[in-house]
Design goal:
binds adenosine-5'-triphosphate, alpha/beta, four-stranded antiparallel β-sheet, homodimer, binds magnesium ion
Chain lengths: 230, 230
Amino acid sequence: IIQVRGLSKTYYLSDEVKIRALDNISIDVKRGEYMAIMGASGSGKSTFMNILGFLDTPSSGSYILDGIEGGSLTKDQKAEIRNRKIGFVFQGFNLLARTSAIENVEMPLFYKGGITDAEARKKASELLDMVGLTGREDHHPNRLSGGEQQRVAIARALITNPAIILADEPTGNLDSKNTEDIMKLFTRLNGEMGITIIMVTHEPDVAEFAARKIVFKDGSIIIDAKTGKN
Amino acid sequence: IIQVRGLSKTYYLSDEVKIRALDNISIDVKRGEYMAIMGASGSGKSTFMNILGFLDTPSSGSYILDGIEGGSLTKDQKAEIRNRKIGFVFQGFNLLARTSAIENVEMPLFYKGGITDAEARKKASELLDMVGLTGREDHHPNRLSGGEQQRVAIARALITNPAIILADEPTGNLDSKNTEDIMKLFTRLNGEMGITIIMVTHEPDVAEFAARKIVFKDGSIIIDAKTGKN
Ligand SMILES: Nc1ncnc2c1ncn2[C@@H]1O[C@H](COP(=O)(O)OP(=O)(O)OP(=O)(O)O)[C@@H](O)[C@H]1O
Ligand SMILES: Nc1ncnc2c1ncn2[C@@H]1O[C@H](COP(=O)(O)OP(=O)(O)OP(=O)(O)O)[C@@H](O)[C@H]1O
Ligand SMILES: [Mg+2]
Ligand SMILES: [Mg+2]
């Protein structure tokens, strides 16, 4: 479902100072695969995820999602694919500050359209319940704990029934019980519904829920292996 | 160094709906102690840390820091104690968006005063080097990875040589190598300089670097024990 060839991303801070965030990445991800991404802080994981999620463009190389070449798309076409096919859990959550948890979760459905207010609210409420946030639906993000904000971000990523979940450190602020619940949820989405999951994590226990693990170092993939789950 | 008696914090969302974020907490922390705080997401850890750091006030109960009763202080007096005695690592980093990493780290020194620009810059540069961020000094937060932002927040908390470090999930976005480096740094600050450290974490391996561990549940402390380090 994902084909990446020679992907590079370089940031230029000045004429002479540049940072190679991604260095010639090539990788294939099959439909229905559950892959973990690990690697040191600053090794390029989020940069890679942002390009996969059409939130950023590479400096060079190609990225094909579901047969569609990323480079050939307009900004609007990318936004439409993001909304229809991808659920993105951001490392920094990126919740809208002036709306409640449940409004944050519903929002992707209103972009998509074709759903009544009542249906959207019901779906959002069920997802919040699935991540243990019943009772926090009307809180704005600044009235939620760090782990609660993270779970709102997870619920929001799932509401459009995406074909692909891109989760950047989805359990970084969660205790072991909540982490386990989220991992069971992801395992079910992948196992029963065939959703492709790419998950950045720095916790080896969390990576073990995936079937495949890749490791980034200085913008390159240095390890690509099956996990113990196989 | 810290005495807490009957501390409670209740949020009122409306006349009938209230959330007991902290429920009658009493605890003493000795000078030079290294204590870890664990507990489920939403159990009150950050609320407790914010009160200890004079960033929030309790609904009831008392908090004495270094012999000074928190309730008797003015807003300005609290800001002054925060600046002089406490180094706070926020769960959400709370970096200033429009200033560089090194300017973020220096800032507490300029509040404190009595230091030249050159000395402040030198000290900030050394701290950024200590957390592995040489080469990222001039980046603004939106040009830093999640783990890099977290390390800037850690460096900033240390720059005034505080008597107490309050660290809320300081390694939540860090890989194992960086986590280990930060834990070695904290162990040195505690062991060699006698700095009191209170650290929220959801990772048991990280908690083991502390000598004492408390566990929060629904706003109360349900466990208070020595760690394996003893
Ligand atoms: N301003 C607020 N208004 C209402 N409720 C709040 C507010 N701030 C926090 N809460 C609630 O208080 C509870 C405790 O929050 P706190 O941030 O202390 O949790 P925590 O233990 O740090 O959680 P985490 O591990 O997820 O960071 C949460 O359930 C949260 O929803
Ligand atoms: N806009 C930018 N301008 C310049 N440099 C950047 C920018 N964004 C990221 N970087 C740099 O690119 C490198 C890779 O960043 P990235 O966010 O992909 O790392 P990461 O692997 O996700 O790290 P972490 O585990 O800390 O989240 C980092 O060293 C970072 O400083
Ligand atoms: Mg990242
Ligand atoms: Mg918290």
